[in-house]
Design brief:
Helix content: 40-55%
Order of helices and strands: HHHEHEHEHEEHEEHEHHEEHHHH
Shape: elongated
Structural class: alpha/beta
Strand order of the largest sheet: 3-2-1-4-8-6-9
Strand content: 5-15%
Largest sheet: 7 strands, mixed
Length: 405
């Protein structure tokens, strides 16, 4: 039937408005900005016009100036029974094209494999190693290792980094360190999974990163989902480091950012040169990462505001789909083909806008997820989160803390 009455006009109008509006209630539409490039296009054009001799002279002069301005950095690694990653990735960190930095490896005492690997690099003057006792009762071993590493650091800017990640270039440290200015007290480095991770894992991680990076760029940082974080040693020690969350087994990056971030005090570096590639974890580790966050977020400030955005986005998306499905069902059952056609058109508009926004955001960060998967991956997120909650509710809560009283 092609009867146009008041109810039909209202339903069609609501469907089309929702289809045009809800795709913009989306973290991919509000995607974070990419970090500014080191050189502008104009500067590159000028350099191309100069002679080879002049360019070589300028490069040499700039290198001297850069080395004088170079912010000294101490990088702390805390491998825990992860000798293979240490052997595979340590050299890439030791050979960064950066004038003044040291690497501190804090390893468990008695880990013979790790000790053997460290001996292979012992001649490198950038490397300093120390060990933690085999047991610690009242704080997580990683927090203890980080604290020991920070105390051993000879520079005020300290980076904590995971050894199961690898930099993509020798300019990785330089790209991050350019943000170590007087105005900032935290610098976060972007991380992606390697190509062996499933599309959902890479999609979910970036989806989370969109919220976190935008919070950094627009206000006060909530937590950090990457595997490289720079902070100030003096501020960390003066505020007693992890005081207030010592007993929680995981969440070191999250707790540091949540505790020390002030409005506008954190910068992120998400250029390709500054990106770490994380080796695909085994499923157990990937799942534990989410379960431990569900415990930790209860002890983080600004958690409600952070989660509110996700909830609004999910409600808007699913409400739109439910209205479209309901309208198609109603239109077919009542043979109201105007409503049926409007619902079908709304579905096409919704899919086109959401896929376009998602693909554009993913491409801007060089994350290769097929366009046709964006919609099912988006819809999977809320149900995947529900599965995390069920597993968390069923878990022994003592597993998330180091106090086994």
């Amino acid at each position: 039937m092609f009867v146009i009455d008041t109810y039909t006009i209202i339903i069609v109008s609501v469907l089309l408005v929702m289809a045009l509006l809800t795709p913009f209630i989306n973290p991919f539409f509000r995607k974070p900005k990419l970090s500014a490039a080191t050189y502008t296009a104009e500067e590159e054009t000028i350099e191309e016009e100069e002679s080879e001799a002049i360019k070589a002279e300028e490069v040499a002069e700039n290198k001297i100036v850069d080395e004088k301005k170079c912010t000294p950095i101490s990088i702390v690694f805390t491998p825990n029974n992860d000798a293979e990653s240490l052997a595979r990735n340590l050299e890439a960190f030791l050979t960064q094209d950066y004038a003044d930095y040291q690497i501190i490896v804090v390893a468990p005492k008695g880990d013979s494999e790790t000790e053997d690997i460290l001996k292979r690099f012992s001649s490198n003057t950038r490397l300093y190693t120390t060990f933690i006792p085999e047991s610690s009762k009242y704080m997580s071993r990683k927090k203890l290792a980080i604290t020991l590493g920070v105390k051993a650091a000879k520079h005020n800017w300290v980076m904590i980094c995971d050894i199961f990640c690898a930099p993509q270039s020798k300019d990785w440290l330089a790209a991050l360190a350019q943000n170590c200015t007087a105005e900032n007290n935290l610098v976060g480095g972007f991380t992606q999974y390697d190509e062996f991770a499933s599309d959902f894992w890479r999609f979910e991680r970036f989806h989370t990163d969109c919220y976190l990076m935008r919070e950094v760029q627009k206000g006060t940082a909530y937590r950090w989902n990457g595997n490289a974080l720079l902070f100030r040693k003096d501020e960390f020690l003066n505020a007693e480091g992890f005081r207030g969350n010592l007993k929680y087994v995981r969440g070191e990056f999250d707790f540091i950012v949540n505790k020390y971030a002030r409005k506008g005090s954190m910068r992120i570096e998400n250029t390709p040169e500054a990106t770490l590639i994380e080796e695909t974890p085994i499923k157990k580790h990937w799942l534990n990462h989410h379960l431990f966050y569900m415990e930790n977020r209860q002890h983080l400030q600004r958690s409600w505001a952070h989660r509110a955005w996700f909830n609004v986005d999910q409600w808007a998306m699913h409400l739109n789909y439910l209205m479209i499905v309901g309208a198609i069902t109603y239109g077919v059952l009542t043979q109201n083909w105007i409503i049926t056609a409007a619902a079908a058109l709304s579905l096409v508009i919704t899919l086109a806008l959401r896929i376009s926004m998602g693909k554009k955001a993913l491409n801007s960060f060089d994350i290769d997820v097929p366009a046709w998967k964006i919609i099912p991956l988006e819809m999977r997120l809320i149900w995947q989160n529900l599965s995390y909650k069920i597993r968390y509710w069923r878990a022994d809560k003592y597993d998330f803390i180091s106090h086994k009283l």
